[in-house]
Amino acid sequence: MKKSILKILKNNKDKFISGEKLSEEFDMTRSGIWKYIKMLKEEGYDIESVPNKGYRIVSSPDILTLEEIEENLNTSFIGRKIYYYDSINSTNDRAKEMAFEENEGTLVIAEEQTKGKGRLGRSWISPKGKGIWMSMILKPELGPINAGSITLLAAAAVHSALKNLDINSEIKWPNDLLIEGKKAVGILTEMSAELNRINYIVIGIGINVNLNEEDIPEDLKARATSIKITQNKKVDRKKLLSNILNEFEKLYIPFVREESTAHFLSICRENSATIGRKVKIIKNKEEKGAKALDINEKGELVVQYEDGKIENVFSGEVSVRGNKGYI
Ligand code: ADP
Cα–Cα distance between 131 and 148 in angstroms, integer? Predict the structure, then answer.
């Protein structure tokens, strides 16, 4: 009911809608309508109410609900259902709990994560209202082996969405995006599968959108940044989120239908922060110097070690560091 009232107000942006009209439409008393208006106001909607004229929406809050992003969303199933939380431990953990019951494309989004996760048990800082902290449930009909490159599909989607907003980024294989050489986006993919069948994949995407310098812990300052810090202005989270979901679906549909990785891998290759660089491949605490040569069609990193040996590195098992530092 609250959502339907909001929709009418949003569809009539500059007009007043009378309480009488709303109460007729929803077969409810005018004080009943007022209760919902009050709830919307408490959520941060600025709604003007003028006697004898009615209600008019003046502005909407900066929150990542479906009602707030759907006007820019042109997907058929990605992001069409959103579980939205003010605060949660980890969006990936919540998405995994509900993955069996939910349809493909369902999202978990939180304004804050208290136990945000990175890969290999690392943590991900996610301050309130400043980023996009979300997880997507997917159920592709692919063999588990063919799903390995899906993190890169997500990275390509985020890269394209940022580009649509005139923000340049580079993809650090396999799961980060850098802006001005520092990490601004991290992706964490988790999968539940049988031998030959995927039950579900949860892709967590954490984007440092409007974090200020002081939101980034001292020990991360040298390698982490935000879009706001690099662009010198606040960025519309809703626009960025809907853009990412649109770009994601555009890449995901052909990937699942034709198992074609060509398009998103070319985005990853052309905008790679890794290819052509000297890197350190860290596997089970063992470090090896190498040069990153390419990303192959499975999404693996092709590296050449100092002894000349060439190997295809699978993303699940390694961390990649720059020769001198993080990148
Ligand atoms: P890595 O980049 O080391 O392979 P992950 O991609 O799993 O690791 O990301 C987790 C790491 O990212 C953490 O150990 C921390 O160093 C860093 N980190 C944590 N939160 C953020 C953030 N919001 N932005 C950028 N980097 C972060």
Answer: 26
- Indicate which CATH number applies to the domain containing 296: 2.30.30.100
pLDDT category, 324, cuts 50, 70, 90?
low
Are 90 and 214 part of one and the same domain?
yes
- 96 vs 315, which has greater pLDDT? 96
Query: What is the best residue among 117, 124, 223, 282 to mutate for testing ligand 1's pocket, by most ligand atoms within 8 Å of CB?
Result: 124
CATH number for the domain spanning 17: value is: 1.10.10.10
Question: 138 vs 148, which has greater pLDDT?
Answer: 138
**CB-ligand 1 contact for 176 (6 Å cutoff):** yes
Same domain, 210 and 262: yes
77 and 54 assigned to the same domain: no
**Is any ligand 1 atom within 6 A of the Cβ of residue 221?**
no
Q: Where are the beta strands (DSSP E) in the chain?
A: 46-50, 54-59, 82-85, 107-110, 131-138, 170-172, 176-179, 182-193, 198-208, 278-283, 286-295, 301-305, 310-313, 319-322
* Whether residues 153 and 36 fall in one domain: no
pLDDT tens, position by position, 226-253: 999 999 999 999 999 999 999 999 999 9
Pocket test for ligand 1, best of 134, 220, 226 (most atoms within 8 A of CB): 220
Rounded Cα gap, residues 167 and 180, in angstroms: 10
Q: Are 171 and 163 in contact (CB under 8 A)?
A: no
- Candidates 92, 119, 122: which one to mutate for ligand 1, based on the most atoms within 8 Å of Cβ? 122
Percent of the chain topping pLDDT 70: 98
Domain housing 309: 278-322
Instruction: Look at the chain and report how many structural domains it folds into.
Output: 3
Q: Per the omega criterion (within 30 degrees of 0), is the bond before 174 cis?
A: yes
Cβ of residue 118 lying under 6 Å from some atom of ligand 1: yes
Q: From ligand 1's centre to the CA of 327, what distance in Å?
A: 12
Q: How confident is the model at residue 213 (pLDDT cuts 50, 70, 90)?
A: very high
Residues 20 and 145 in one domain: no
Distance 22 CA to ligand 1 centre (A): 48
pLDDT tens-place string over residues 25-41: 999 999 999 999 999 99
